[in-house]
Write a structure and sequence with these properties.
It is a single chain. This protein is of the alpha+beta class and 385 residues long. It has 3 domains: 182 residues, 2-Layer Sandwich (Beta-Lactamase); 106 residues, 2-Layer Sandwich (Beta-Lactamase), CATH 3.30.450.20; 74 residues, Arc Repressor Mutant, subunit A. Helix content is 45%, strand content 16%. It has 16 helices and 12 strands. The strands form 3 sheets. Strands 2-1-5-4-3 form a 5-stranded antiparallel beta sheet. Strand 8 and strand 9 form a beta hairpin.
Amino acid sequence: MGKNGADEFETLLGELYDCAVGTGDWSALVAGIAGFLRSDMCNLFSPPSGAGDLIWHAHRVEQQAWQDYVAYYAGCDILAQLAFERGVCGVGDVFSDEYLIAKRDLVRTEFYRDFWTPLNIHSSLSTLVCAPDAGGLPMVVLSLYRPPDQPGFTTEEFDRISRLLPHLQRAFRLLRRTSELQAKAHMGLQVIETLSLPLLIVDPQGRLVHMNGEAERLLAGKTLGLAVKGGRLQALNVADKDKLARLLMAASGRPALSGGMMLTPSAGSARWHAFVSPLPAASARVGERQSPLALIMLIQTDRPPARLKMMGEIYKLSPAELRLAEALVAGKTIEEHAESAQISINTVKTQLRSLFSKTGTKRQGELIALLSRAPPLAPGVDEGA
């Protein structure tokens, strides 16, 4: 292969691996494959299966042709049938239509007459790029086509497709892994959004990677003592700035350490704790390939640390018992609750005994610990909003 051919191949590989990591253009890639393999038409597809049609990218092959193939012509695809019969459908096998069947016989088949002829196809070259595996890799087939006024595929195209194949196989394994990671990341962000606990993800320099809706709402109120400026999370108090910087550096070090601080609030505002925890990216197992990140959890100091409605439903608490439970979790004594609720201390003690009975606890500390285990779900989740 000459210099121009080598340059063409390197360009094609760049497009291929860009697609594998989700940043490339599949249409441009398949057009590039068609050009490299000197073919008028090309498609990269997953045959119909119980898992559905996972992949279909084409150059000069209309979507309707693929739909027709899936709906009917896959069942009379004489080339696929012969490839299976002759045992040339293994991963990496490359075969032309002329290897499987004489052209004079092919042109008499329904597949050629009703499917290929309207598409102006006369010759094909195909290979099985990937086979299904337990890890979720789909079956992927690469097919190239030429019209009647062009010769069939030659040894040169066989050699070119054989050179490209290992890269195609590696790219689809990478694509599967990238898709898995993207799905996990999406799931993780969905989990974060379900929590009423304000959460932020930042890098060691405080650059904001993500924050959930609760954190966004809280920062917009400008009473927390934190703000995002120039894409970085910053403490507004000078002393807090140094503390936050030290916590972020500790969370990104080795060993990665968790920590916390009390934020200095604006005048008259509630006080908040900021807890900083390393994310798995900071683990030594990841090595140097990924930057460490930190998860910041914000917890208000003067309100119950958990929503109690769910716990009330679990233990069948009455509204009055639930109000007492909320008071206890907030740090109030039974006397303070009796006064604020304008009920007698004897009534509160009766409610407390009922709480003990329903929850299987014996002391207030045990009861508070149990009730505080309720997950901090966002209102839209635990209230059915």
